[in-house]
Write a structure and sequence with these properties.
The protein is an all-alpha fold and about 180 residues long. The protein contains 6 helices and no strands.
């Protein structure tokens, strides 16, 4: 019996210490940022985004892949906040719709191709994101719209390059 009393006493102290550590950890949360966005760099300033595609991106992608993150309540609670903020920072580092203008033509084409690949495979939006954001789940129609859009935009942004290549082929060689 004395052994059980001692065990309960230790468990109570462990619970008190854990609760204190949990409260103290709430003051160590990294910053939840939404850097100021330059509209001239935004996706919409560089690509032709129709309203349906824009709505899908806003609903399913923008929280992690733009500077317009809607930070949910649980992003303020340690240790979950560490995971959420890390996911957002990681997502922005790979693809940021708010800073699309920083990508050159080749990078933009690769990004567009990757968007289609990720949504087709079901890798995006993340399976850890969709349970708390069920509206972010993509339907088969959403995936088709995104992939049709990314393919059309890849072709559109490649056209000037193709034209220049064809023009160069028909130009006479420069005099030396």
């Amino acid at each position: 019996m004395a052994h059980m009393k001692r065990l309960w006493k230790v468990l109570r102290w462990v619970a008190v210490v854990a609760a204190c550590l949990f409260v103290a950890a709430q003051f160590t949360s990294p910053a939840r940022t939404n850097p100021e966005a330059d509209r001239s760099l935004a996706l919409e300033s560089h690509l032709q985004v129709n309203p349906q595609v824009g709505a899908i991106i806003d609903r399913s992608c923008a929280d992690c892949h733009s500077n317009k993150t809607q930070w949910p309540w649980y992003s303020k609670v340690v240790p979950v906040s560490w995971l959420v903020i890390d996911h957002v920072n990681h997502g922005r580092s790979h693809l940021n719709f708010s800073e699309w203008g920083r990508y050159d033509r080749r990078e933009a084409g690769q990004m567009l191709g990757q968007i289609c690949k990720e949504v087709k495979s079901g890798a995006m939006p993340l399976s850890s994101y969709t349970p708390l954001h069920p509206e972010s789940k993509l339907s088969a129609e959403d995936v088709k719209l995104l992939c049709d859009w990314t393919n059309a935009e890849r072709q559109r942004i490649d056209k000037p390059k193709q034209f220049a290549t064809r023009q160069e082929e028909t130009d006479p060689p420069p005099d030396r």
